[in-house]
Amino acid sequence: MDLLNMSAVSLAKAIKAGETTAVEAMEAVIAQIEKSEKDLNCYVTFDKEAALSSAKEVQAKIEAGELTGPLAGVPFAIKDNMCTKGVLTTCSSKILENFIPQFDCEAVKRLTDAGAVIIGNITAASAVIAG
Q1: For burial by CB atoms within 10 Å, which of 37, 69, 96, 103 has the most?
Q2: Considering the entire predicted model, what is its pTM?
Q3: Which residue spans within 1-131 are E strands per DSSP?
Q4: What is the longest distance spanned by two Cα atoms in the chain?
């Protein structure tokens, strides 16, 4: 199963069906980031340990039947202009180089409510590259 080429919906279905896990999906994404980040320079904020920890927490909730959202277990990167609680969010600007929001913006809240696992924050240019 090629986790990196699945749609978000297909990946969520595979995770819910027990064909893979949120942790395996995150590990695949992390491996790809580590392979290509030095050439692409997409991530403003990327915390491998926090991403894996979040994936483990989400997987436990999926297995316990507590998390059944349509994106349960799917890794997502957030554009760096969207407030993500506790994550450096700079809008790629020197003025905000130390800004760490105390709340999630509505879009991030909806993603996490749907079960998405946040990888980190990406630049606007990388959003175009990844898309």
Answers
A1: 69
A2: 0.88
A3: 43-46, 75-79, 117-122
A4: 45
